[in-house]
Specification:
With 502 residues, the protein is of the alpha+beta class. The protein binds pyridoxal-5'-phosphate. Pyridoxal-5'-phosphate binds next to helix 9.
């Protein structure tokens, strides 16, 4: 039975010859959806390909292509010399099975509870998201974003294209699972000189940034449910990494001297790992005091615990030499030092590294045999060349000066526009600063009022896991030009006023 507009009346199928989807795919999808919804019952006889071609006004080869695909996927069965039927043992799903290739999931898929989650995944779903994000482009006062506007993009592009053009077969091959050797060498000499890290290139393993380094280390250190000290308030990424690895995060308070090691000893003396940012704690910006560094190292040596040192932005000390890394004081080989190029280059590069203590190099090599470095070898080679040619060191020097200038511009603007309500803390490292609220105001309310006006500012209380001991605001200034910082503080002043009135 044939109709004028490509409808198979026997199967109630309609094809659209103007659609960009090929006719055989439309026929495949139409039949598949009817079979899965039960409209075409198991065992039902399908008209012959010749009959369907006539009914739908399409070539017989189009019908055969669709039927063959349905037979191959088990929706139809065809026996030699017999007709084609709907497979007799198909489980009936639901009416709204999505068409393959459709962009959004069906209502049923969205509402589905899905496979059962691990406890760790359930805990992960309820972690804090940190600062609000109002759009893709960096704006006042997004924390954690480097000065992308000052990145030497053209130079980087030339380095990448030169390395790609001259790449040997070795670079196109899988590469070393521990990381590209020249990059490991360049990193070892850079962190030895600039951060006081004691290492040889064999201890350096290339990662796809800090987060992946945390993940790798925690998987090697933890059995399910093992305790991990994490800073409170702290970086939400640390909390998430511990949960993802099946560990039990134990929040340890941070004060003006950094992580309170004695509180850690009281709360979880047998913890397997302490995850700390000793040189520049996030979000408080404090430095771990020497006495606490020593206490932390002694605890780790005594209990054979790991210290995971997150050294994400301390290269950006605005004046003077960066502080020496904790790893440089470690005589027992307990510290895994983690560095990232997310701040010193750009976050999208997704390159970082970890420095393993000598006794753990073998286990990291074994881990890499199971899960090789996820970083692209060609990008690693480009970064190695960027370091070797001196561009990286030059860029760091320029960034230090830029962050000093931007930090001072933000302090001046806050003093001019928000004095009496906000008390900013001077900042000598990195690309964010924090301010206390002088008035009894909720920082969460200020954050929301600012977001309503298009300004991103993080609320300090969002970074606490235990009791919220302090309220305040965290400002990122690294990725924002001084004029935009000033505009941001003017808007923030209005948000503070609105939060006060509510
Ligand atoms: C405390 C802290 N550690 C590490 C990182 C860097 O993470 P990644 O290297 O995964 O980009 C950030 C980024 O904002 C951070 O704030």
């Amino acid at each position: 039975m044939k109709t004028s507009n490509g409808v198979a009346s026997s199967l109630l199928l309609r094809l659209d010859s103007r659609s960009s989807t090929p006719l055989h795919e439309q026929l495949f999808e139409g039949l598949r959806a009817r079979i899965l919804s039960g409209a075409l019952a198991p065992g039902l006889r399908i008209p012959s390909s010749r009959q369907l071609a006539t009914e739908l006004d399409v070539a017989r080869s189009t019908v055969l292509q669709a039927l063959d695909a349905l037979i191959a996927e088990g929706y139809l069965v065809a026996r030699a010399g017999s007709c084609t039927r709907v497979a007799p043992e198909l489980p009936l799903l639901a009416a709204d099975v999505p068409r393959s290739g459709t962009r959004s999931p069906s209502t049923r898929l969205r509402a589905s509870r899905g496979p059962r989650l691990a406890d760790a995944a359930r805990a992960l779903k309820s972690t804090s998201s940190g600062a609000p994000r109002l759009g893709a482009a960096p704006r006042a006062f997004r924390p954690g974003v480097p000065a992308l506007d000052l990145f030497p993009t053209a130079r980087w592009a030339r380095t990448v294209s030169r390395v790609h053009a001259r790449a040997s077969m070795g670079l196109f091959d899988g590469g070393d699972p521990s990381g590209h050797a020249p990059l490991r060498e360049a990193i070892a000499s850079h962190v030895s000189a600039s951060r006081g890290v004691r290492c040889v290139p064999e201890q350096v393993f290339i990662t796809a940034g800090t987060q992946q380094a945390f993940d790798e280390v925690l998987r090697l250190a933890l059995n399910p449910g093992d305790s991990v000290w994490i800073e409170d308030p702290g970086y939400p990424g640390s909390h998430r990494a511990v949960l993802a690895a099946g560990g039990r995060p134990v929040p340890i308070p941070v004060d003006g001297e950094g992580l309170d090691v004695s509180a850690g000893l009281a709360r979880a003396p047998r913890a397997r790992v302490a995850l700390v940012a000793p040189s520049h704690q996030y979000p408080l910006g404090v430095t771990l005091s020497l006495s606490r560094r020593m206490a932390l190292l002694q605890w780790a040596e005594r209990t054979r615990a790991w210290i995971l040192e997150d050294d994400y932005d301390s290269e950006f000390r605005h004046r003077g030499r960066p502080l020496t890394a904790l790893q440089g004081l470690d005589e027992a080989g307990c510290v895994v030092y983690v560095g990232t190029f997310s701040k010193s280059m750009f976050p999208g590069l997704r390159l970082g590294f970890l420095v393993a203590p000598p006794s753990l190099v073998d286990v990291f090599c074994a881990a890499r045999a199971a899960a090789p470095s996820p970083a692209s070898t060609l990008e690693q080679a480009a970064l190695a060349a960027f370091l070797a040619d001196g561009h990286f060191a030059r860029h760091l020097r320029r960034m230090r000066a830029a962050y000093r200038e931007r930090g001072e511009a933000l302090l001046d603007a806050l003093r001019a526009d928000c004095s009496g309500v906000l008390v900013p803390r001077p900042c000598d490292t990195g690309m964010q600063l924090r301010a206390s609220l002088a008035a009894p105001l909720s920082d969460l309310r200020v954050r929301d009022e600012a977001a309503r006006r298009g300004v991103e500012v993080a609320a300090l209380s969002d970074y606490f896991l235990g009791r919220r001991r302090e309220s305040g605001l965290v400002f990122g200034f690294g990725g924002v030009r001084p004029d935009a910082l000033r505009e941001g503080t003017r808007i923030l002043a209005r948000a503070l006023e609105a939060a006060r009135r509510r």
